[in-house]
Design goal:
This protein has 572 residues and is of the alpha/beta class. It has helices at residues 14-28, 53-59, 63-73, 94-105, 134-152, 169-180, 183-188, 190-205, 210-224, 229-252, 269-278, 313-328, 342-354, 388-406, 413-430, 442-445, 453-470, 489-496, 498-508, 511-531, 540-564, and strands spanning 48-51, 79-84, 87-92, 118-122, 156-161, 258-259, 282-285, 288-291, 302-305, 332-336, 363-366, 371-373, 438-440. β4, α5 (134-152) and β5 (156-161) form a beta-alpha-beta unit. The protein binds arginine.
Length: 572
């Protein structure tokens, strides 16, 4: 389990949690660590809640009675405690809440942490010679968001892209290339050509018996490690594939610390097999080497070496994990990979455990659900491949139509359409609970209303526009009378909850928590500027106060969108 994450300096609503807990602990003589404040079931009940069941039980009292007694005894300036059944709820005075949240949300360290932790996040990890598909979108977008959360909370984050570039399928690909490859096609559209070769191989294999032998020979050459023609060809495929993947990453604004294919661990495999053997876990099974995992409650053994002597996906994962442990000594290593690979992760983790590698406890598979296109299933086998870049292109095209309609005068239409299209796709992915399947419906993804990326972007752009039009210098915070901030309570509460949301998202590995918090902020922000005029007032003090609120909203939206990887255009 990762250590609890602490903020550097309590800000937002966190600011009030410490005094509440300290006061309770002092007057009630209970240990502060037991006082876990929660979020009340309804916003109207207050900003914090304390369930009293466990304390009532310990005291042999009725929880409601205990809550009522505690409410009466509670005395902290600006905070009111009220009992509601077995819960003790705490409400912060509106003016005080507004002043604290405004001040902290305008600081650079808003929603940050100082956790001393090394976190490896492995994500994206597409396979070369195949297009990245929408399943890779989820790992890419979720993994990048998690990495940003941990970075913000102060972790030393190491982002790894574990490219699938090794295995017998590459022997087949090289064999197909030798027969039908075209340099010209390869230059034009590398991945498309390689995919076509791969498909052709599988069709031809049925009629042509010499083909599998060619593939086998090619893979042997690859594995031999010599600098032969086969290896050079494979290297070229890898480079060209990576170049195409890079374009997608650039559109998402994602960079990795290490792009290491499975092949990178190849020269470590002999040592790994020796290590497994000396740990006494290897068993022979019809010429193959397996690790029996029944002691760990897993029926399917982990296959690490075939009867032909080749290593497998799991062998390379064992090698990668061990090599990363030795290199980074991580506190946690997260693998953001689809739920369909759950067994694989259970297997190689269990194998490591049997070898006495205690650090395997720090490894965690972060699974996610499938994406389904609203108009039908996506299936590679049915020949209907929807690549990730096609999805992005289509989103940008639709965004362009919307921008053309909404803001025909905009000078930066192309850039904005790119930001809106990509942002829409990213946010749609992250607003769902990670483990749930996602239905992808173009109309919904790109709508400017409702729980969408464009809606968040619009809220942010609207703030930028108000601030531009105001043409006033930045207000001095200390001079703002909190009374002038009235009318924004929902917004201050929503903004004030962002630090908590970030911590919770990091703990649960759930970007959705930040996405939902941001939607709440946007909704409250929209009501705020609908109900509280900002421009054209003849009261300078009030204008300054409201501009500060809009600036807080703009910054918080930007911060939240940055964390999720949703671009934030200033105009749209
Ligand atoms: N390349 C694999 C795929 O596209 C994902 C790799 C996941 N990571 C791992 N360490 N096995 O399905």
């Amino acid at each position: 389990m990762p250590k609890p994450l602490a903020t550097a300096q309590p800000n937002g609503l966190d600011f009030f949690a410490a005094p509440i807990r300290a006061a309770l602990a002092a007057s009630l003589d209970v240990d502060e660590s037991l006082l876990q404040l929660e979020r009340p079931r309804q916003e109207a009940l207050g900003q914090f809640a304390l369930p009293c069941f466990r304390f009532a039980k310990a005291a042999g009292k009725n929880p409601a009675e205990l809550a009522a007694n505690w409410a009466e005894a509670f005395s902290v300036e600006h905070i009111t405690a009220t009992a509601a059944g077995p819960f003790l709820n705490f409400s912060i005075d509106e003016d005080r809440l507004a002043a604290v949240v405004l001040e902290s949300a305008l600081r650079e360290d808003f929603a940050t942490g100082n956790e001393d932790c090394t976190t490896v996040v492995e994500f994206s990890s597409p396979n070369i010679a195949k297009p990245m598909h929408v399943g890779h979108m989820r790992t890419t977008v979720i993994g990048a968001a998690l990495a940003r959360f941990y970075t913000r909370l102060g972790h030393h984050v190491i982002k790894i892209n574990h490219i699938g570039d090794w295995g017998s399928q590459f022997g087949k690909l090289v064999a197909a290339w030798q027969r039908w490859g075209s340099n010209e096609e390869l230059e034009k559209a590398p991945i498309a050509h390689l995919l076509a070769l791969y498909v052709r191989y599988h069709e031809a294999e049925k009629q042509d018996e010499s083909l599998p032998a060619e593939a086998k020979k090619a893979f042997q050459e690859l594995e031999s490690g010599d600098d032969n023609q086969t290896r050079a060809t494979w290297k070229k495929f890898t480079e060209l594939s990576l170049r195409e993947f890079e374009q997608v990453y650039a559109r998402f604004g994602i960079e990795f610390d290490f792009v290491r294919g499975e092949s990178w661990y190849e020269d470590k495999l002999t040592d790994i097999l020796t290590w497994l053997d000396s740990s006494g876990v290897l068993k022979e099974d019809a010429g193959a080497q397996i690790i029996d995992l029944t002691a760990e409650g897993i029926k399917t053994p982990c296959l690490v070496k075939t009867a032909h002597g080749t290593t497998l996906y799991a062998t390379r994962d064992i090698a990668a994990a061990k090599s990363r442990w030795e290199e980074f000594k991580f506190d946690q290593m997260l693998y953001v990979v689809g739920a369909e690979q759950t067994l694989h992760f259970q297997q190689f983790k269990a194998a490591l455990k049997l070898c006495g590698a205690e650090w395997q406890e720090k490894m965690e598979h972060i699974p996610f659900g499938l994406i389904r296109m609203a108009e039908g299933k996506l299936s590679t086998r049915a020949g209907r491949v929807i690549s990730l870049s096609e999805v992005l292109d289509r989103a940008v095209e639709l965004a362009r139509e919307a921008v053309d309609k909404k803001n025909p005068e905009l000078a930066t239409k192309a850039e904005v359409a790119e930001m809106v299209g990509v942002g829409a796709v990213v946010f749609h992915d992250l607003k769902h609970q990670r483990q749930k399947d996602v239905v992808f419906d173009w109309k919904e993804v790109l709508s400017f209303e409702g729980d969408t990326g464009p809606y968040l972007q619009y809220t942010h752009a609207r703030c930028c526009s108000i601030l531009r039009k105001a043409e006033r210098s930045e207000p001095v915070l200390e001079e703002i009378d909190p009374k002038l901030l009235r009318g924004g309570k929902d917004l201050f509460v929503a903004v004030g909850r962002l630090p908590q949301a970030l911590r919770e998202a990091a703990q649960k590995r759930e970007p959705n928590t930040v996405a939902q918090a941001l939607l709440k902020i946007a909704a409250a922000g929209n009501s705020y500027y609908r109900e509280n005029r900002v421009l054209g007032l003849d009261d300078d003090a009030l204008t300054d106060a409201r501009l500060a609120v809009i600036d807080m909203l703009r910054r918080t939206m930007k911060l939240g969108m940055d964390l999720l990887g949703v671009p934030a255009p200033e105009e749209m």
